[in-house]
Amino acid sequence: MGNPGDRYLLEALKSEGVLRAYLFRYVRNPADVDELLQETYARLLTAQGSEVRSVRALALTIARNVALDWLRHRDVVPIDLVSDLTSLDVLDERAQVDEIVNSHQELALLADVIAELPKRSRRAFTLRRVYGLSQREIAQRLGISEKTVEQMLARAVRRCAEALFAREVDADRPQSLSERLRRRLKAP
Amino acid sequence: MTHASDIEAQAALWLARRDARDEAGESAEFAAWLSSDPRHRAAYLRLAAAWERSARLKALRPDGGPIDADLLVRRRPAHHTSRWRHPLAPAAGLAALAVATAWWVIATRAVETYRTEVGGLSRIVLKDGSAVTLNTDTELRVHFSEARRGVELLRGEAQFTVTLDVSRPFEVSAGGRLVRAVGTAFDVRLDHGEALEVIVTEGRVAFVDAPGPAAGPGGAPTPATISAGESAIAGGGKVTVRRVSTTETSRHLAWQVGELSFQGETLSEAVAEFNRYNRRKLRVEDPSIGSLQIGGNFQALDVDSFVAALGRSFGITAQSADDGTLVLERAPSPVRD
């Protein structure tokens, strides 16, 4: 592993909430947002140029282009949306506040996410990440196959990533972290 | 085209598989998957970053305790209990009822007290939808009834965002005082079990039974209500209300994002704040440095950075004392000729 673009991607994860909010304005469908976000990250990985002043601005620009491409392939493109696509700055400033996640908030967030997992995932992840047991030891202890442990951990890490990076930015009604988390966990 | 969620699922399985085999290098198969589509690499890096950060969870492991797979099981939040208020369907067997009852008892007991450790921060949503953020070393008891929403702050500090319910006032008792709200946002801090500070950020709250002599001639009347943008400090039998600027309020509430914000506080005061959040305590013995004025924002749990900043700005160093505390003192002046 280890590409120059990797660093941009890792940096951009901090702004995932903003990127999602940005894409959501044009796409209005969470599944499509996931697609476009992944495309944004993929393009970010291959971004050229060593003098990137703000990875966040770069990521937002890429997201805009991705959204534009997506809109162009629609049958009907709402014109107000396209002209609006240039207004990145406002969003960029507004959402800074939302990104402050410090160590103990993050810890509480992670603990919340794990607590909400189905039992086997929760246990497997707890044993692996809190107690450092190997996957084999976990399988023995929980009486499940190693393959299952693997699946449980895979599931858990996806939820962690979602919680850590995909925080929504809702300018109209600022919500507490736990409210946002709860809402997301209820979503199908 | 492969969907984003499928790619992420694949990436997650790769991550777990590599974790199982403790692979440092890349197997040919993994390398091939990774390089076949930049979206694969993106999804993998994202999950790997999350996995890395989840190592933080080790901090929750109790010292020397046995391995507990259920360590992170949720203490049921209060609002979940409401479902058990619904009459159980008659079809439900006795066994189910017994289980439900036992669960109810456990759940009820579990929701009544919330605690944070030194350095902890926790957000809870009460069954009326009100949100509470608990600061470091805080203990809170919740007892709701039909007539009132009662919360007892036994120790520490909490920020309340109260949902509107005129028929059921929200009452916080702390240090022998009672603060009543209907629908509002405010912060309550109890120092050493006595000095109580209330900062209101939205709406109004009332001191219901502010003790002390009724306002006599010449004495300030006991304030009944505190409005948004005001702070009240109750201690030693009186309540002092003053206006606080928005900046000051946000500095006061910086703990909610894990920060301490100082602007002109003395070093002694700043040290006392840091000590609220950390087991590793700081101490100032030399009064000439204790009165130094401090400014700036610091991570509440990052004592080292604070000490380093003191070193850079004031030439103060920290020496470990026998009892494990860090004693702040002026570094010996360099000899000049």
Describe the structure.
- The complex is a heterodimer of chains A (188) and B (337).
- Helix content of chain A is 70%, strand content 0%.
- Chain A is mainly alpha-helical.
- Chain A has 2 domains: 96 residues, Rna Polymerase Sigma Factor, Chain: A (Orthogonal Bundle), CATH 1.10.1740; 84 residues, Arc Repressor Mutant, subunit A.
- In chain A, helix 2 runs parallel beside helix 4, helix 3 packs across helix 4 and helix 8 packs across helix 10.
- The C terminus of chain A is likely disordered.
- Chain A starts with a helix and ends with a helix.
- Chain B contains 8 helices and 18 strands.
- The longest helix of chain B is centred in the N-terminal third of the chain and has 19 residues.
- In chain B, 28% of the residues lie in helices and 30% in strands.
- About 14% of the residues of chain B have low confidence.
- By secondary structure, chain B is an alpha+beta fold.
- Chain B has 4 domains: 47 residues, no CATH class; 31 residues, no CATH class; 134 residues, Sandwich (Jelly Rolls); 73 residues, Phage tail protein beta-alpha-beta fold (3-Layer(bab) Sandwich), CATH 3.55.50.30.
- Chain B is globular.
- In chain B, helix 1 packs across helix 3.
- The interface between A and B is large, with 66 and 60 residues.
Which terms would index this structure?
heterodimer; A: 188 residues; mainly alpha; Rna Polymerase Sigma Factor, Chain: A; Arc Repressor Mutant, subunit A; 2 domains; 70% helix; elongated; disordered C terminus; B: 337 residues; alpha+beta; Jelly Rolls; 4 domains; 13-stranded mixed beta sheet; three-stranded mixed beta sheet; 8 helices; 18 strands; 28% helix; globular
